[in-house]
Write a structure and sequence with these properties.
The protein has 333 residues and is of the alpha/beta class. The protein contains 17 helices and ten strands. Strand 5, helix 10 and strand 6 form a beta-alpha-beta unit.
């Protein structure tokens, strides 16, 4: 019966526990004297300490109304287990975080910890850069473990994540190629944030100035754009234009992309947007003042004021505000 209360106190999330809470776990299965004896025993052994200012009850065996929990008392065997495991695994792995976590988390992680330790022992230099699924498979035999099954959290708990070498999580670029422009000295590339306008335009790319029209997929373009030089291995000058939703997120994507490549807004598309009435929506997006300032710097003063007002009013222009016919007219110049 004492073990039940010790397990309860060991897993109790708060530092202090009320007497009523300890009484409730027994659901009237013990007499008061039996319960008081258990609480007194845990107190004497150092598991709990009375908060004297909480006051005593008026029972024959007086108990305080509140006690402070000494967490290490209830986890001594678990801590001993962690100390032993730390001596068994590779020194690059740290179990420090597990001392503040529930033992059940360690139980779940332990098989992976052993596999990771074996991997490091057999790959001591750890200098080969790998894609995350490849590294995941080599470590634990499951290519999806790091990205989709909680492996990243385990590696962070082991203080190993920041020291690993791996390629960024990137996906192949989706884009259409203008066969008429592949031998040009200057290659123009139009990056489209959303799928609908991208699919409208790629059927007519041969009637445009663009060597490629690229599907940005929102934020994915930030990491994926580096693959263009490999997927479109054409020499010459490369000029990038970007067309996305005119909202806070779209402008933040553009701002981040400018830190990766020399890109400008597709001015004619955004200007055409402003011929229409902006719409409500996306009120929960955060304003990035630096991104806004960067974006509007490419526009005349009058249009800058329009953009700032739209965003201030928590409105936006979706790419889909432009019909297929308008998009094609702009594409063909």
């Amino acid at each position: 019966m004492k073990k039940r209360l010790e397990e309860y106190l060991g897993n109790y999330k708060k530092t202090y526990v009320h007497l009523d809470d300890m009484i409730k776990i027994y659901e009237n299965s013990l007499s008061y004297s039996e319960l008081a004896s258990i609480i007194k025993s845990i107190e004497v052994n150092g598991g709990i300490a009375p908060v004297k200012k909480s006051g005593l009850n008026n029972m024959t065996i007086p108990l305080y109304y509140k006690y402070r929990i000494n967490k290490p008392y209830f986890h001594q065997s678990y801590y001993t287990r962690l100390y032993k495991k730390q001596l068994e695994i590779n020194l690059q792995l740290s179990l420090e975080d597990y001392f503040s976590l529930n033992e059940n988390i360690f139980n779940k992680d332990e098989p992976y910890i052993d596999l990771i330790s074996d991997y490091i022992n057999n790959n001591s230099d750890m200098k080969e850069e790998k894609f995350i699924p490849e590294l995941s498979f080599d470590m634990v035999g499951d290519e999806k473990w790091i990205q989709d099954k909680g492996g990243e959290a385990v590696l962070k708990r082991l203080h190993l994540w920041d020291g690993l070498l791996f390629y960024e999580r990137i996906e192949p670029l989706s884009f259409a190629i203008n066969k008429n422009k592949c031998n040009e000295d200057i290659n123009y590339h139009l990056i489209i944030e959303n799928k609908t306008p991208f699919l409208h335009l790629i059927n007519y790319i041969n009637e445009s100035k663009y060597s490629t029209i690229i599907y940005g997929k929102g934020w994915q373009i930030i990491s994926n754009i580096k693959l263009l030089s490999k997927q479109f291995n054409i020499k010459g000058q490369h000029i990038y234009e970007y067309f996305g939703d005119m909202d806070n997120e779209g402008l933040s994507i553009f701002d981040s992309l400018t830190k990766k490549i020399n890109v400008k807004p597709a001015i004619n598309y955004y200007t055409a947007m402003m011929d229409y009435r902006s719409v409500k929506g996306k009120e929960n997006q955060n304003m990035n003042e630096d991104a806004i300032d960067n974006f509007i710097s490419y526009f005349p003063t009058k249009q800058q004021e329009i953009i700032k007002k739209v965003l201030k009013d928590k409105e936006y222009y979706p790419q889909e505000i432009l019909s297929k016919n308008i998009l094609l007219k702009l594409l063909k110049g």
